[in-house]
Write a structure and sequence with these properties.
Strand order of the largest sheet: 5-4-1-2-3-7-6
CATH architecture of the largest domain: Beta Barrel
CATH topology of the largest domain: Thrombin, subunit H
CATH superfamily of the largest domain: Trypsin-like serine proteases
Number of domains: 3
Number of strands: 21
Distance between the termini: 97 Å
CATH class of the largest domain: Mainly Beta
Order of helices and strands: HHEHEEHEEEEEEEEEEHEEHEHEEHEEE
Strand content: 25-35%
Largest sheet: 7 strands, antiparallel
Structural class: alpha+beta
Radius of gyration: 30 Å
């Protein structure tokens, strides 16, 4: 009996050892085959594809968004080297008299051939060429520009254009995943990923009207005018600027929300320009020092430190030291909100200003004028 158990234990040991060797080196031998003699599918692939989608892959979003993102080559005749830092960032340092060529990006937003991009990408260019992701190329004409938001609208004449789907930037939350698509450094179309780092960034000194989406998705020179998209490939913003000490990405990039870009697009396509309201005041953030200097008791709003003589605000009775708390029923808490609310007013149509003067509240009727054209903020 002892010999029998010894033989049995040795046999079991050998069989277990053989099982582990086969499971390690040839695991497919242990899988049951199909009844009909075919192969067993380990993953369910998409119809017409043998590739299994990896968990967490952004390939579908990249494919959906990339088709409508274009590369833009803007060139202008040689001239004296300008000192504009935006120009140097985009075109680089070039010798005086040498033709200046810069690369940027854009997004096709309409089957009719309209393209959104940054104004600084095409500003002053004599010739603009657009290269599509499907290798087609076309000359573009400028439909209109809006330096105050650093946006421009181009148009190309091609058939069967890929068009990006517009997303809803108003529903964004910090931490949402995003992709940045563009043509950095002219190396070709590139997709980078990141998250939304912050919303409503302003007072950066980049544009007059600022309401930036901040992201850590890598954005570099050449990405300007490209797309910031969500995980479905829907457009959330137009990549515009980066914070950098080296000229390359440091994880702080800024994009114009598509909600703002769409308003500019509609106005330019409809009228050829963006028309905004203007009342002629010099606003500043309300703080304790200014409140004390002007004997103001208001706890929130925007204090007016200067009023243009004979301007719309002066004619309405606005004085230095007044605190504007609402424009046309829209509360304003900072200078950015005041500028946006006034810009949204229709020139020539009266609107109400809610103000606080010392310890009194009042409502004034102001008739805004058309905002004068300004050069891009530097």
């Amino acid at each position: 009996m002892r010999k029998f158990w010894l033989l049995f234990s040795q046999s079991v040991t050998v069989l277990l050892a053989a099982y582990f060797v086969v499971a390690t080196l040839k695991p497919q031998w242990l899988r049951a085959g199909p009844a009909a003699g075919g192969t067993v599918a380990l993953f369910q692939a998409a119809p017409g594809s043998t590739k299994a989608s990896a968990a967490g892959s952004f390939s579908a979003a990249a494919k959906a968004g990339s088709a409508a993102v274009v590369s833009i080559t803007a060139s202008k005749a040689g001239a004296r080297q300008p000192q504009d830092p935006w120009f140097r960032f985009f075109f680089g340092d070039q010798a005086p008299g040498e033709p200046q060529v810069g690369l940027g990006s854009g997004v096709i937003v309409s089957p009719a051939g309209y393209i959104l991009t940054n104004n600084h990408v095409i500003e002053g260019a004599d010739n603009i060429e657009v290269s599509l992701n499907d290798q087609r190329k076309a000359k573009a004409r400028v439909v209109g520009t809006d330096p105050e938001t650093d946006l421009a609208v181009l148009k190309i004449e091609l058939d069967k254009l890929p068009v990006i789907v517009l997303g809803n930037s108003d529903e964004l939350e910090i931490g949402d995943q995003v992709l940045a698509i563009g043509n950095p450094f002219g190396v070709g179309q590139t997709v980078t990923s990141g998250i939304i780092s912050a919303l409503g960034r302003n007072q950066l000194g980049i544009n007059v009207f600022e309401n930036f989406i901040q992201t850590d998705a890598a954005i570099n020179p050449g990405n300007s005018g490209g797309a910031l998209v969500d995980t479905h490939g829907h457009l959330l913003g137009i990549n515009t600027a980066i914070y950098s000490r080296s000229g390359g990405s440091m994880g702080i990039g800024f994009a114009i929300p598509v909600s703002s870009a769409r308003q500019v697009l509609d106005a330019i396509v409809r009228d050829g320009q963006v028309t905004r309201g203007w009342i002629g005041v010099e606003p500043q953030e309300l703080n304790a020092e200014l409140a004390q200097a002007f004997s103001v008791k208001a706890g929130s709003g925007v204090i007016i430190t200067g009023v243009l003589q004979n301007g719309p605000a002066a004619q309405a009775g606005v004085r230095p030291g007044d605190v504007i708390t609402a424009v046309a029923g829209r509360p304003v808490k900072n200078v950015s909100e005041l500028l946006g609310a006034v810009a949204a007013l229709k020139p020539g149509e009266p609107a109400k200003l809610a103000i606080e003067r010392r310890d009194q509240r009042a409502e004034l009727s102001v008739t805004p004028a058309k905002r004068p054209g300004t050069k891009r903020a530097r």
